[in-house]
């Protein structure tokens, strides 16, 4: 892996948002007053940063533009345009040339004063690499819905992203990998339990990969944290449906080999980054909860016995337990967002809770609680958790005080 | 050459290898295989990443139902594909996999433009002939389809 430096503007100053710059100024003033830094050092630190939203807006437009252009390129491949003079080989050569030209352009941009273009061009290069794979498949008539194409795209994108230190390109590649994984789960198994178990085991794997990055490659760890959070929410939300989670699961050999793979990654992560033990332990709990819920799920309701719309005692107990597991998972994701200064994760957790309340208001839980009562209960639980966490924080501060 | 350039070239090499890996099963029969003409019936769906294609139904009758993902062999007899068997039968045969969509031999799709896919479905609706190539390992690739 290459060392990742902070992105610097043409002036040599690091561009940061106005809010963060205000915070830095406040902290510098506090440090100066406390005698931690002198006036000259504080001024030098302040001069190293440039406030403003222009750089962020520029990057946003460039990344969105690259994303759309790349999607357009894949779309163009998918439309199988009739070009009589151009055979399959020339089509492949043409698309591959675009991909390689983008790689070269990104490298050239990174070494010039247009370095702001390097990241978006690398993102576009990964999309063009996907287009190249799809063009090869098109030219050779690879059968439709072949998930290995997505895997090749994701793997190639990940290797390229690490070689160039491109965070946006890595985010896309990890998203494609996640898409392949979910698709593969659906292809190889057709039961809800297999889906829940597969996603559950993916949580410690993604968490361990994120933890393996270490502090110096934090930007490249972020897509893996997001993947772990998404897998957590989707696995535990799916598990709240007893007839979905209660179907036949994956074969034992697949579960054991998946668990061994995830545990190996976790062991490597703990060995390399001991400070990540809480996150890894949390992810293992999610995996255990996902597997455990599929084991105890009561399965398809016996409508002949209970009648349609009636929920048995076992189902009620399961739904309440699975809902508690989901809420604990969502709180864990939100806490991870706070711990890692990734507000996106916290927003994702709350989006998950909203989806849970919306979906379960019409699901089996509606037979136990009305939608309004469910929202009230979830809201109350989250507030209690917030109060408990705040109490814990105050206790820690009191104990740490001299 | 700098370490960064070496890393980039290494990454590009891996990307090319991945392209070769996904294309090899279809490239090998095209380059080294024998050609066969098989009766098919086309229908016209869409793949979200790759656009319009004609799905080809070879009418492979299921002789047995192995576990999903298991390898099976499909013999070529008199311009038709026979039922899947294990182990490999005598004579020309395709190496296939028993999957979600039944027996999958890698020749179930023929990609074309939206208009061409629709035209093929209309023109070949009554039955068609798929030209396929099969290499020594039983891997197959579709070369074209034509009217019966």
Please tell me about this protein's structure.
The complex is a heterodimer of chains A (402) and B (148). Chain A has helices at 18-33, 39-47, 54-78, 88-110, 118-139, 147-164, 167-188, 192-212, 218-238, 242-245, 252-272, 277-296, 303-306, 313-339, 343-360, 371-400; strands at residues 14-16, 49-51. With 402 residues, chain A is mainly α. Chain A has a two-stranded parallel sheet with strand order 1-2. In chain A, helix 4 (88-110) runs antiparallel to helix 5, helix 5 (118-139) packs parallel to helix 7 (167-188) and helix 9 packs parallel to helix 15 (343-360). With 148 residues, chain B is α+β, with helices and mostly antiparallel strands. Chain B has one domain (33-147). Chain B contains two helices and ten strands. In chain B, the strands form two sheets. In chain B, strands 1, 2, 3, 8, 9 and 10 form a six-stranded antiparallel sheet that branches. The longest helix of chain B is centred in the N-terminal third of the chain and has 30 residues, at 3-32. The termini of chain B are far apart. The model of chain B has no long low-confidence stretch (mean pLDDT 81). At the A-B interface, helix 3, helix 4, helix 5 and helix 6 of A face helix 1, strand 3, strand 8 and helix 2 of B.
Task: Describe the SSE topology.
The complex is a heterodimer of chains A (402) and B (148).
Chain A: E1 14-16, H1 18-33, H2 39-47, E2 49-51, H3 54-78, H4 88-110, H5 118-139, H6 147-164, H7 167-188, H8 192-212, H9 218-238, H10 242-245, H11 252-272, H12 277-296, H13 303-306, H14 313-339, H15 343-360, H16 371-400
Parallel strand pairs in A: 1-2
Helix pairs in contact in A: 1-2, 3-5, 4-5, 5-6, 5-7, 6-7, 7-9, 8-9, 8-11, 8-12, 9-12, 9-14, 9-15, 12-14, 14-15, 15-16
Chain B: H1 3-32, E1 34-43, E2 46-47, E3 51-57, E4 71-77, E5 80-81, E6 93-99, E7 102-104, E8 109-111, H2 114-123, E9 128-134, E10 140-147
Antiparallel strand pairs in B: 1-3, 1-9, 2-3, 3-8, 4-5, 4-6, 6-7, 9-10
């Amino acid at each position: 892996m290459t060392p990742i430096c902070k992105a610097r503007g043409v002036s040599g100053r690091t561009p940061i948002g106005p809010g963060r710059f205000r915070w830095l100024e406040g902290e510098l003033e506090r440090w100066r007053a406390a005698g931690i830094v002198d006036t000259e050092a504080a001024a030098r630190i302040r001069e190293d940063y440039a406030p403003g939203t222009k750089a962020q807006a520029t990057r946003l437009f460039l990344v969105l533009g690259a994303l759309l252009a790349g999607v357009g390129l894949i779309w163009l491949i998918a439309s199988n345009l009739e070009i009589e003079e151009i055979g399959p080989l020339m089509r492949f050569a043409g698309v591959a040339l675009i991909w390689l030209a983008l790689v070269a352009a990104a490298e050239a941009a990174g070494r010039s004063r247009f370095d702001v273009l390097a990241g978006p061009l690398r993102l576009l290069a990964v999309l063009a690499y996907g287009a190249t794979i799809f063009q090869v498949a098109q030219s050779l008539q690879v059968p439709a819905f072949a998930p290995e194409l997505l895997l090749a795209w994701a793997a190639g994108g990940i290797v390229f992203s690490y070689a160039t230190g491109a965070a946006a390109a890595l985010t896309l590649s990890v998203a494609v990998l996640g898409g392949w994984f979910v698709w593969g789960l659906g292809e190889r198994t057709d039961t809800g339990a297999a889906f829940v178990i597969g996603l559950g085991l993916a949580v410690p794997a993604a968490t361990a990969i994120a933890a393996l990055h270490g502090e110096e490659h934090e930007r490249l760890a972020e897509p893996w944290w997001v993947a772990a959070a998404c897998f957590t929410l989707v696995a535990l939300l799916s598990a709240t449906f007893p007839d979905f989670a209660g179907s036949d699961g994956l074969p034992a050999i697949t579960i054991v080999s998946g668990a061994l793979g995830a545990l190996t990654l976790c062991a490597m992560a703990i060995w390399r980054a001991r400070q990540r033990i809480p996150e890894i332990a949390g992810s293992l709990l999610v995996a255990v909860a996902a597997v455990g819920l599929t084991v105890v799920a009561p399965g398809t309701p016996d409508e002949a016995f209970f009648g349609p719309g009636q929920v048995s005692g076992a189902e009620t107990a399961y739904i309440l337990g699975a809902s508690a597991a989901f809420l604990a998972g969502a709180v864990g994701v939100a806490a991870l967002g706070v711990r890692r200064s990734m507000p996106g994760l916290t927003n994702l957790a709350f989006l998950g809770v909203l989806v849970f309340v919306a979906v379960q208001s019409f699901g089996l839980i509606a037979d136990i609680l009305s939608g309004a009562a469910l929202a009230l209960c979830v809201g109350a639980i989250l507030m209690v958790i917030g109060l408990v966490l705040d109490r814990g924080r105050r206790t820690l501060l009191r104990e740490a005080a001299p | 050459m700098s370490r960064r350039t070496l890393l980039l070239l290494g990454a590009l090499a891996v990307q090319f290898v991945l392209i070769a890996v996904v294309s090899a099963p279809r490239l090998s029969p095209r380059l080294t295989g024998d050609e066969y003409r098989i009766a098919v019936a086309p229908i016209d769906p869409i793949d979200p990443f790759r656009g319009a294609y004609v799905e080809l139904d070879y009418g492979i009758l299921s002789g047995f139902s192995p576990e999903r993902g298991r390898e099976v062999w499909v013999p070529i007899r008199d311009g038709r594909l026979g039922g899947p068997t294990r182990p490999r039968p005598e004579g020309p045969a395709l190496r296939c996999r028993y999957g979600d969509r039944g027996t999958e031999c890698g020749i179930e799709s023929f990609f074309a433009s939206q208009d061409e896919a629709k035209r093929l479905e209309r023109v070949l609706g009554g039955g068609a002939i798929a030209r396929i190539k099969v290499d020594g390992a039983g891997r197959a690739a579709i070369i074209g389809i034509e009217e019966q």
